[in-house]
Amino acid sequence: MNKIDNNAAVLRTAEIITIGDELLNGQVVDTNSAWIAQHLGALHISVVHITSISDKPKAIQEALRQAEERADVIIMTGGLGPTRDDITKAAVAAYFGTTLIRNETVLAHVEGIFRRTGRKHMPAMNIGQADVLANATVLFNDVGTAPGMAVERNDKYFAFLPGVPFEMKFLMENRVLPMLHGMHKNDVFVYNTYLLTVGIGESHLAQQIADIEDTLPPFITLAYLPRIGMVRLRFTSEGTDMAYLTSVTNSFKQQVVERLKEYIVSVDNVSFEEVLVQAFTTAGITLSTAESCTGGAISAQITAVPGASQMFHGAAVVYSNQAKMDILGVSLDTLTQYGAVSECTVKEMAEGAKRVFGTDYAIATSGIAGPSGGTETKPVGTVCIAVAGKSETKAQTFHFKNDRTINIERTVMAGLTILWDMLK
Amino acid sequence: MNKIDNNAAVLRTAEIITIGDELLNGQVVDTNSAWIAQHLGALHISVVHITSISDKPKAIQEALRQAEERADVIIMTGGLGPTRDDITKAAVAAYFGTTLIRNETVLAHVEGIFRRTGRKHMPAMNIGQADVLANATVLFNDVGTAPGMAVERNDKYFAFLPGVPFEMKFLMENRVLPMLHGMHKNDVFVYNTYLLTVGIGESHLAQQIADIEDTLPPFITLAYLPRIGMVRLRFTSEGTDMAYLTSVTNSFKQQVVERLKEYIVSVDNVSFEEVLVQAFTTAGITLSTAESCTGGAISAQITAVPGASQMFHGAAVVYSNQAKMDILGVSLDTLTQYGAVSECTVKEMAEGAKRVFGTDYAIATSGIAGPSGGTETKPVGTVCIAVAGKSETKAQTFHFKNDRTINIERTVMAGLTILWDMLK
């Protein structure tokens, strides 16, 4: 086992290599890499490259060679299961010019797992799980049968971990991150801080703060992370003096906050729904929804936030006119005169939801999400939204385009944005 | 614009390159790659490598160089937003030894988008979005401002797409996949056919059809595409005689259908919700939901299907006990005696929804989605589901685990599965 050299080079960059055909054919979304990147980021190690490859010796060795050129820390996950570990571990051993040796402690552990699960016979293929790289520090895996391995060579750190998410996380948290933390004391710091904006497009936003962005010092970068109806901004700074970094970065962030005031929803790294749930809970006020074209999507997004039951009373999804009348008390006159997709109807829906659910606010939606159902005066994409507040009800008509899914998403965001504007 | 060469080499392998610091620092999970891989897989193009890199010219060019060595099709996503596209597009242009030219059709489209959203002035930086690689076929983006681009060179196909998932999907479905499909025509034929199963796990399913799978000829492959509560099977076959391919593949598919009868939901490539909407519409019957822990997620998923308004009348999301009583007529006695999370309560909720919305069927859910709210007798993950049908109401209790999002997803699938079983 290599000992950590106190004068070791600073570990600044990392590369993640994930192995598995299930990643390459799209059966499984690679969530491991984002998790690893976040946790390395907390140690100020920046991931510069993420690669998914197949379980072939040549691909594994080529990926390791390229990663070793690019990064100081290389984390490889997957390919260590009982059916496939021979090939992966042998390929890695060849890469390092070393051999595999049987580790008796690991073998006893693997046998123990089979005994505990009540299976008498451990399949022969599992014996191979106790074979480890001769040059590695074994990372004991308390939660599975495949051990991890760590190798240090030429001031580079390699970790080989199973791909099963909870085993990978266990080994990262209990073995790899503590090792990296110990190796890292004299490093540079990286500071990230966020802003969430709604109601302004990415390019308008960039234009409004262009002069501030121009004055950013080279050690601060600003990233725009857009989604439908919102843009998240991320300031990243890097240097040796954490107090200085934080203070300079926050002063630029503050300039942006002042410039964009009306569009700023949060100065933390949270979702819009979380901001709303928090704001309602703190103010002790409550919300309900009356949804036609969004079909419950606003309600579903709000209630996906833990603790939403504190401020959310319920939703009425009223697809039929009958339900609009029966449940929310929309008048037949309004429906006949103005139609289901009208500002008058959504106003009555919002006020009905407020009354029926006994809430302080209510959002109502009605529209033609598509792909069919459009008319000449109300084409697909026509959406009316109302928000009933404490003293007034606001309604607005939108003209989106053709895609049903996107129209629903846009309507959800527009409804939440109107609500947010009324709350302010 | 390059024309497709009728004698072009067969496109067999692909590499996906995703650009973005938000992927490398773990803020965003790369879901695009899995989606692209699945859709290329359906054209029998295997992804051999997935890479995430930062928005730096050197990284972009190096990734393209390596991908071009390894794969026939290279899909690059991200880095095309208005604030950043100069650097990415310029880097790609340099890689191809070409220049950027202003495309007037794209410019008119981008200006049109700004006009339609009611903003008078398009920011100057958006003009750059109309600059495209001089050697590229422009992939018009109906749903956003960043155009995609396709380049063919030395029998390799490159596509450059925005990273925003719905824009990427639009361009893949409407531009890239049809082009790739067309390039395949004079080659070999690829035939894909699907089965959708619910209520059986992947490994049990594989075990049940192992003997059939063993007899598949080498030109037919079977892929298992599992999601929560369902497994999609894809048969892919490749050869020069389409009639023969279709007939042989369908005969194997038929064997699997007969073996798995009770679990088969569809023999087409459709979603479970689409199957249900179709089945209800065809039978002329109607559905409503009464949702507590799912918060409208069942309703939102059903109504995301075009035409759902034919069979779906509405939903009552009743988070509070008061709303359960007021809107659905659940009795105070039941709530007091058995609690909100009980089979008695969900039965009354389902029957209430059936009555209030005047439907033939209704699904009701109530549970402790987490992370808090659990008790000793009803820990987090306890969920009760009822389905009221024409003549009876069935209720069932489930014990899921700790994650709120997954518990909600599992509940949605379990509710739809019980409904499906009652319909059969």
Automatic annotation (TrEMBL), chains A, B:
It comes from the Bacteria. InterPro entries: CinA (IPR050101), CinA-like_C (IPR036653), CinA_C (IPR008136), CinA_KH (IPR041424), Competence-induced_CinA (IPR008135), MoaB/Mog-like_dom_sf (IPR036425), MoaB/Mog_dom (IPR001453). Residues 15-182 form the MoaB/Mog domain. CDD domains: cinA (cd00885). HAMAP family: CinA_B. Belongs to the CinA family. This is CinA-like protein. It comes from Sphingobacterium arenae.
